[in-house]
Specification:
two-stranded antiparallel sheet; 95 residues; alpha+beta; 2 strands; 32% helix
Length: 95
């Protein structure tokens, strides 16, 4: 197999811009726990969970505005770090 640089590989691929249909009750992510209360397991969060967590965090807790810059200091592998803090930029109406 010939070696290809990562930028060359990216340049050779066509962008995929289709969006899958998903409802609020559909699974969006599965976060794997360490099993602090038993055996390790996958905890499912739905699209509705992510939307609700994002809006409550943004509007009620932090009261963020469109031009604010926010530092997400939580580890991204936690259920608070990844879904709640990193999805603010994905909410409807944002670029």
């Amino acid at each position: 197999m010939d070696a290809v640089s990562f930028p060359d590989l990216l340049a050779s691929a066509a962008p995929e811009d289709r969006v899958a249909d998903a409802g609020d009750g559909d699974t969006a992510v599965i976060l794997y726990t360490s099993g602090t209360t038993g055996q390790p397991k996958g905890a499912e969060l739905t699209h509705g969970n992510l939307i609700s967590n994002t809006e409550v965090s943004r509007a009620d807790i932090v009261q963020a505005h469109p031009d604010d810059v926010i530092f997400g200091g939580l580890p991204l592998f936690t259920c608070s770090g990844r879904p709640s803090r990193s999805t603010w930029r994905w909410r409807p109406g944002r670029a």
